[in-house]
Amino acid sequence: RQAVKDIPGSEVMGALAERAVLDQVMSILLWIVTGLLGVALLIAIVGIGNTLSLSVLERTRESGVQRALGMTRRQLRGSLALEALLLAGVGTTIGVVLGIAFGWLGTRTLLAGVTESFPLVVPVPRLLMICAVAAVAGVLASVLPSRKAARIPPTQALATE
Question: Which of 84, 87, 85, 92 is nearest to 129 (CA)?
Answer without folding.
Answer: 92
